[in-house]
Amino acid sequence: MSFMQAVLDYGFMQRALVAILLASLLCGVLGSLVVVNRLVLMAGGISHAAYGGVGLAIFMGWPVLPSVTGFSMATAGSIAVLTKGGRLHSDAVIGILWSFGMAAGVLLLDLTPGYNVDLMSYLFPDSVKPAPTLPLSPPASIF
């Protein structure tokens, strides 16, 4: 028996492989659309500002995924509202909200009493352990 056969005998490894394959297909398609439509700064700004949602969720004791989703939607809406009139340039607004979201997340996590969880787990999720209640990993199951 080869090493790969032995590894794939475990159910969690099979789920991780399926989650990684689906996420790679989804990210490849969406990433190409983002680059072609010149929305790289927008995508980076919203995704990094979402860290403020992580900090808010942990500080308030809320579930992380809905909080991050709401914070990201609020960031996208704020970018749209602030740049609609043409008074502010979109790259400046995105940069400001990017910095604000990251700073708010770090500040709220620092102010959370008794919080000692590894922050890297929110920035770089573990693909070997997809959520047991979801059929795939959270990013792949949203779409």
Topology of helices and strands:
Blueprint: H1 3-7, H2 11-36, H3 40-49, H4 51-60, H5 64-84, H6 90-111, H7 120-123, H8 138-142
Sum this structure up briefly.
With 143 residues, the protein is mainly alpha-helical.
Residue-averaged pLDDT: 85
DSSP, total strands: 0
Number of domains: 2
In one word, what is the shape?
flat
User: Ends: how far apart?
Assistant: 36 Å
Succession of helices and strands: HHHHHHHH
**Over the alpha carbons, how many angstroms does the gyration radius reach?**
18 Å
Structural class: mainly alpha
* Contiguous helical run count: 8
Low-confidence stretches: 133-143
Instruction: Classify the beta-strand content into a percent band.
Output: under 5%
**Assembly classification:** single chain
The main β sheet shows up as: none
Helix content: over 70%
Structure report:
The chain has two domains: 49 residues, no CATH class; 74 residues, no CATH class. It is mainly α and 143 residues long. The protein has eight helices and no strands. The N and C termini lie far apart (36 Å).
